[in-house]
Design a protein that fits this description.
15 helices; globular; 67% helix; 291 residues; mainly alpha
Length: 291
C-alpha cells in the first residue's frame, strides 16, 4: 500500500510535468447565464447541457472548486461519450481525437485534480472513476496503483456493480496487487446474492484475466453463475464459457450440461444465430475433450 509521501511525490512529478493546478476562471457556457432570481442549477444538470468535449473540459476548469467526485466522474463519462459520438464513423479519427484529448491541458487538469483530491472519492465514486478511465484506455498503471489503496479501503461498502467495475478495470489495465484481488474475492462472496446477471458475467470475464486467484474465484463462483444462466445474453454467455474453458478439468459435469442445455434451447427457439453457436462449440471443445 502506497504511503502518503509516495502520493505527494507522484503529484509533484505531475505538477513539474504539466504545471500546477489551474486557477478558476469564469465559465462562458450557456449554462452559466442564469437569472439571479432563480434557484442555482446543480452541476449534474449543467453537465448534461454541455454539447462538446471542449465545453466539458472548460466547464471543469471554471467550476472545479464546487465540483464533487460524482460531478467529476460525470464529466469524464460525458467526455468519453462525446468523443465517441463525434467520431463514431471513423476509428482512425476516434484514435486521433482520444490522443488529442489526452494531450489537452484542460484534461490533464482534471486528472491532476483527481490525484490531488483522491481522499474525497468514496465507495460510489471510485468504481465509476476507474471504469471510465479503463473505457478510455487511459492505461496509466501508476495512477491505478495510487488509486488502489483507496479502492481497497472502500471496497466493503461497494455495490455489486462497483465490485464488477473494479475487477474489470484493474484486469483491463493489467495491474492490481494480490491484496486487492484477495479483498475483491472476499467482498464478492460476501455479497454474492446482490449481483445481477450482467454483474456476474462481468466478474467472470474479468477474473479469467486476473493475475491473482482466477481459478479459485471462478470455481467458487460457479454455483452463482448457474443460478443466473437463463438471464445471460448470448454475449454474456460467451464470456462465461470462455472464462471456464481455461480450466476444463476443474469444471463440474453438471455445470457443463446446464450450459449445453441452455444453448440447445436457444438454438431450437432460434434465439441464437449460427455464428454465435459456432463460437460456443469452439469453446466447448476443451471442456468436453478434458472429460
Amino acid at each position: 500500500m502506497l504511503k502518503e509521501s509516495s502520493l505527494q511525490k507522484t503529484f509533484e512529478i505531475w505538477c513539474r510535468t504539466f504545471g500546477p493546478p489551474a486557477i478558476n476562471r469564469p465559465c462562458g457556457t450557456c449554462c452559466q447565464r442564469r437569472n439571479h432570481n432563480t434557484a442555482p442549477v446543480r452541476p449534474s444538470e449543467e453537465i448534461l447541457c454541455l454539447h462538446t468535449s471542449k465545453d466539458l473540459t472548460k466547464y471543469f476548469i471554471a467550476q472545479r472548486d464546487i465540483l464533487k467526485p460524482p460531478d467529476v466522474c460525470s464529466i469524464l463519462e460525458r467526455l468519453w461519450e462525446k468523443i465517441q459520438d463525434e467520431n463514431e464513423e471513423d476509428r482512425g479519427k476516434l484514435f486521433s481525437a482520444k490522443k488529442q484529448l489526452f494531450n489537452d491541458p484542460d484534461f490533464m487538469a482534471i486528472m491532476k485534480d483527481v490525484l490531488f483530491r483522491l481522499d474525497r472519492y468514496k465507495a460510489k465514486d471510485l468504481p465509476r472513476l476507474i471504469a471510465v478511465l479503463n473505457s478510455m484506455r487511459w492505461n496509466d498503471r501508476q495512477l491505478f496503483k495510487i488509486v488502489e489503496p483507496a479502492v481497497i479501503r472502500e471496497m466493503p461498502s461497494m455495490s455489486g456493480m462497483g465490485l464488477s467495475q473494479v475487477a474489470t478495470s484493474f484486469t483491463g489495465v493489467g495491474c492490481g496487487s494480490q491484496l486487492l484481488f484477495n479483498q475483491l474475492v472476499q467482498c464478492c462472496f460476501q455479497t454474492a446474492d446482490q449481483f445481477t446477471a450482467a454483474e456476474v458475467a462481468m466478474l467472470a470475464a474479468a477474473f479469467s484475466k486476473a493475475p491473482h486467484q482466477p481459478k479459485q474465484f471462478l470455481l467458487g463462483f460457479a454455483p452463482l453463475v448457474s443460478r443466473h444462466l437463463s438471464a445471460f445474453s448470448d454475449s454474456q454467455l460467451q464470456d462465461i464459457v470462455q472464462a471456464y474453458s481455461l480450466w476444463p478439468s476443474k469444471v463440474s459435469q453438471d455445470f457443463i450440461e446446464e450450459i449445453l442445455h441452455l444453448v440447445e434451447e436457444r438454438v431450437q427457439s432460434e434465439m441464437m444465430c449460427l455464428p454465435t453457436l459456432v463460437l460456443f462449440l469452439r469453446f466447448f471443445c476443451p471442456l468436453e475433450i478434458s472429460r
